[in-house]
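ZP: hey, is the NAP complex queued? I don't see it on the tracker
AM: it wasn't, my bad. submitting now with these inputs:
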Amino acid sequence: MSKNALIVGANGQDASYLAEFLLEKGYKVHGTIRRNSVPESQTTRIEGIRESGLIDLHYMDLTDTISVDSVVKETQADEIYHLAAQSHVQVSFELPKYTLDVNSGGTLAILEAVRRFSPHSKVYHAATSEMFGNSCDADGFQRETTPLIPVSPYGCSKLYAHSLCHNYRNAYKMFICSGILFNHESPRRGINFVTNKTVLEAVKIKLGMSKKLVLGNLYSKRDWGHAKDYVEAMWLMLQQDKPNDFVIATGETRSVKEMVKYVFSKLGMNWEDHVQTDKKFERPEELDYLRGDPTKAKQLLSWKPKYTFESMMDEMIEYWLKELKK
Ligand code: NAP
Ligand code: G4F
C-alpha cells in the first residue's frame, strides 16, 4: 500500500519540490495552506499538482491549534514534513513575537498533535544553520556538534523548536528528525532572499527593465545548495531506522559579493556598474559565515547533492530570462 505524507506549509519553496518528489515515489500527498485574501497566491508554487488533483489541501495555520489538531488527526500520515515557518531572517527582527509564535509555538502544536492523535507518524522538522549564529569549529565548518548560539529572533525561534524535537523524541519515544539545513535556493525561492533578488534584478537590468540592484551586506558568507537536492535529504532522514539530526550542506562557502559577481558576469555585465548598497537591507546583528560539513549525511544517508553552485545559479538565470522575455 502506498504511504501517506502530510506537508505542513505546502506552498513554500521546499514543500513544492518535496510534493513533486513524494508523488513520483507513489505517495498519497496531503498539504496545508493558509487563507489569503488573494486566493491564487495560496497555491502559487504548487499550481500544477493542485490543478491535476494530485495533492489534498487542508487549511491550517500554525497559530491556530484547533486547525493543527484537526489536520494531524484527520490525515493520520505515515510521514509529516513540518516545513512551515516565518522563514525570513531580517523580517524576524521586525516581527519577533510572530516569528516565535509560528516557528516555536507552531512546532510545539505539531508535536503535541502528533503525540496525542497520530503517534505512529514520523516527523521531519525544518531546523536551520541560522541556529549556529557566529559559532564555528576550529577547522572552519559547522556540524551537528557545533554550539548553537543564534543571532536573530528567527534563529532563536528555530533553536527552541529544535530543542522541543529532542525533548519529544526522548520523552515520548517519538520518531522526530531535525534537519539542520544550510541555505538552499532555486527559481522558486522568494524574491526577497539574496540569491533570487540578485538574479531577478540582474536579468531585468540586462533586458533594460531596471537600472540598479540595491543590497545590504555584501561580505557575509553562505553555503548555498539547491532546494531540490535538500528535499531528498529530508525524505532519506525519515527512511532510517532511528530518528537523528543531520547537517545538510555543500561544504563550500562564498560571499554575497562573489555570488553577485558570478550572476552579473554570466549575463555579460560588470556588477560594480549596477550594484549599490543601502543600510535598510542590513540586519541589527549579522551571521557572518556559514560552511556546513555534511559528512554524517553522506555516510548514514548516502546523500549527495547533484547541483553545483554554478548549475544552480545558471538555472535561476535561465528561469528569469525566460519569464521576463514572455
Ligand atoms: P518558505 O518558502 O518561506 O515557505 C514557508 C511556508 O510556511 C509557506 O508555505 C508559508 O505559507 C508557510 N507558513 C508561514 N507561516 C505560516 C503559519 N503561520 N501557518 C501555516 N503555514 C505558514 O520557506 P522554505 O525556504 O521553503 O523553507 C522551508 C522550511 O525550512 C522553513 O521552515 C524554513 O525556515 C526552513 N529552512 C529553510 C532554509 C532555506 O535556505 N530555504 C534553510 C534552513 C531551514 P504561505 O505560502 O502562505 O506564505
Ligand atoms: O538570502 P538571505 O535573506 O538568507 P539568510 O538570512 O541566510 O536566511 C536563509 O537561510 C537560512 C539558513 O541559514 C534559513 F534558515 C532562512 O530561513 C533563510 O532561508 O540572506 C543571505 C545573506 C545575509 O547575510 C544577508 O545580510 O545575504 C545578505 N544580504 C545582502 N543584501 C541580503 C541582502 N539578504 C537579503 N534577503 N536581501 C538583501 O538585499
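AM: back. The longest helix spans residues 96-117.
ZP: great, adding it to the tracker
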